[in-house]
Structures are given as structure tokens and as C-alpha cells.
Amino acid sequence: MSSQAFDVAIVGGGIVGLATALALVERRPSLRLTLLEKEQAVASHQTGHNSGVIHSGIYYKPGSLKARLCVAGARQMRAFCDAHGIRYETCGKVIVATHPDELPRLNILHERAQANGVPGVTQIGPERLRELEPEAAGLCALHSPHTAIVDYREVAAALRREIEQHGAVIKTGARVTGIAQNAATLHVETTQGDIAARFLINCAGLYSDTVARMMGLAAEVRIVPFRGEYYMLKPERASLVNGLIYPVPDPRFPFLGVHFTRTVHGELEAGPNAVLAFAREGYTMGQVNAVELAGTLGYVGFWRMAMKYWRTGLGEFYRSFSKAAFVRSLQRLVPAITEADAERGGAGVRAQAINPKGDLVDDFSWARTANSLHVLNAVSPAATASLAIGEYIAAQASV
């Protein structure tokens, strides 16, 4: 079978892959570019299963890629939505300290917000908290008035239209099954036919390390999937929360803790937790991929992580099985919530990179070869930062 020839092939049709494709074709309109997505639609996994928040950049260590690209990306995301008529809502967010030992961590977050240039973030007391969120309980909180919500599937659809209008080719149902290198050309085998490219950009999310290994790259990290499960509050109880209510996160983990998130479609989500998934696309407890699970269990970094955090992991599994335990976590923030108010909702799977030491990689992470660039850790706030990430990758790529 003859191969179609391109200058650049992007693997992965999530929001980071799409944003990278748009950045490249805008920089170089004559570029022959294809994007390969294994599903029949773009944004089918992390992009289409997240909570839809346009984060403001509070949490991230000053100077990190997350800090830099989130703050810039949030501005770009709003501008992109304005330009394409995509609805978003600037509903604001509070990060609530409910125990005295959380106060120093809240102060650190405030300092980070200021260092990162996040606009409008203020520390507020219980009186102002009650004005913003009458049902929230806390000693004090950070208020981020510019945090917003959007449907990232709508953003992805607009990105796809823009990319195709620039003449790029998006192939769906095109799972990459092999990559061979011959002189200056990469031969990429897919389930929709083979293609040839001078440069490859790997934005494969949950399978980014797999694609890297196809190219012989000994990636230092491995993707371990964590499922985040949500409950939905019944419509008649959605008025308990006005905007977004988050806890003060545990600094040991790149997760934000169970929280309340309004959606642009008028729903109120509660969650997510973070439990080990038994498949890379394991959206339910019953989904098990024996080969992928064996890969996780055979990785030394997983066991080193498990030794460090086994108590936390068991607690997350317990909360996954016990609605009462899940609701108790929510009641720390909003005491009026009851088990009767919440119904099980959907879930997402986070493509978390873990290094051989057992550390959960906290920042965005990349690896390069002469003719490829691999995005190996693009978790939250990657959707918020996607347009800025795309520009960063486009500037780094040798095309």
C-alpha cells in the first residue's frame, strides 16, 4: 500500500493535539499536516470527560510550564471562544480551608497566584465566603473571580473546523499500529492506511508513552491511568452552589480533591476522586485490560508510588465503592449536602505520568528526538492551557 506524504503527523485528536495542529498551520500555511485519531471522533477521552473548567493558574509552582502556560492559555481560551461563538461562563471559584492546618497551604496558594500573575485573586474571610457561597463552610478561602466554565468538546469541534479550513487532513478511526524510520522519513502504519512524514508530534494522551516506545524512545516516565468518578447533584439541589467550590489540595498529589463544579449546561457535578484504573480507558470499575494492567503492575515506579501512598489509595478505593464516604468528603465543603441529593455520574481517566522513583510528575513533560516530539504528561490544566501548549510545541518542533 502506498503512503500519503506529509511534513508533520500529529498522533492524538484531543484538545492538545488539535491546538498544536492549529498553531502549526497558522505559523506555516503551506505545511502538509495530518492528525491521526484512533476514535471515530476527536475529543473522545480526556478532553471530552473533564469538568470543563477554564482554570486561572493558582495552583502551579511559579516558573513551571503549568504556571506559565495556564495563565496565558486561559486568556487565549476566552478569546478563542469569543471569536467562535462558544458559550462560556465566568462563574468564579472559591478554594476553601475547612481546618486550621490548611491555612498555611492556602497562604502558599495565594502567593503562587500573585507570582503567576493570576488576576483578581483575593483571600476572604467567612463573611465574604457566605456572600459568595451561602452553603459553604470554611475558616477562610481564596476567591478567584475570573475562573470560568466551558464545554471543551465544543472548543475541540471549533479547532477541528479551523484546522481543516487551513487544508490539513484529520483522519479518524486511524489507530497508529507501528512506526518505522527510513533515512529522513517516518513511516506510520495506521488502521486507515499508512502515511509518511518528516516529523511526528505525539499527543496521544493515555497512550503517549506507548507511541514513544514505537519510535524506540526510552521514555523515563510511564503513563498510569487514574479514574476520576463524579456524582451529579439533583437539579432541585443545584442551587446549593453558585459557582465552583474547591478544597485546599494536598501538596503531595497533582489532584485537586473532590469539589463542586457547575457546567455550562446547567448541571452541578461533585468529584472527582482518583482511583487506579485497570485499563487505560477504564471508565468503570469493571473495565479491565489484562495487558495494560500487567504493564502498570510490572512497572517499578508504580510500586514505589504505591509504597508511598498506599493509605491514600485505599481511601480513594473506599470512597469509590461507598457513596456515604464520597458524600462525607463533599460535606466538608457544603454541610447541607445529603446522600439523597447525589446520583452517580460519569467518569474520566487521567493520563498521569509516573517516574521510576514513584513520583507523580507534576509539570507538563516532553521528550524529543531529531524528528519527533512527545508530550508525555499533559494533565490538568492542559485543556485550559491547550492553545498556549500548542504554540509552545509548534515553536519547539523542527518543521
Please give a handful of descriptors for the protein shown:
399 residues, 5-stranded antiparallel sheet, 11 helices, single chain, globular, alpha+beta, 20 strands
Would you spell out the secondary-structure blueprint of this structure?
Elements: E1 4-11, H1 15-27, E2 33-37, H2 46-49, E3 53-54, H3 65-84, E4 88-89, E5 93-97, H4 103-115, E6 122-124, H5 126-132, E7 140-144, E8 148-150, H6 152-165, E9 169-172, E10 176-182, E11 185-190, E12 195-202, H7 208-214, E13 222-233, E14 244-247, E15 259-262, E16 268-271, E17 275-276, H8 290-297, H9 300-321, H10 323-331, E18 342-354, E19 365-369, E20 372-377, H11 382-396
Parallel strand pairs: 1-2, 1-12, 2-9, 5-14, 12-20
Antiparallel strand pairs: 3-8, 4-8, 5-7, 6-7, 10-11, 11-12, 13-16, 13-17, 13-18, 15-16, 19-20
Helix pairs in contact: 1-6, 1-11, 3-11, 9-10
Q: Can you tell me about this structure?
A:
- This protein is an alpha+beta fold.
- Helix content is 33%, strand content 27%.
- Strands 1, 2, 9, 10, 11, 12, 19 and 20 form an eight-stranded mixed beta sheet that branches. Strands 13, 15, 16, 17 and 18 form a five-stranded antiparallel beta sheet that branches. Strands 6-7-5-14 form a four-stranded mixed beta sheet.
- α1 runs parallel beside α11 and α9 (300-321) packs across α10.
- The model has no long low-confidence stretch (mean pLDDT 95).
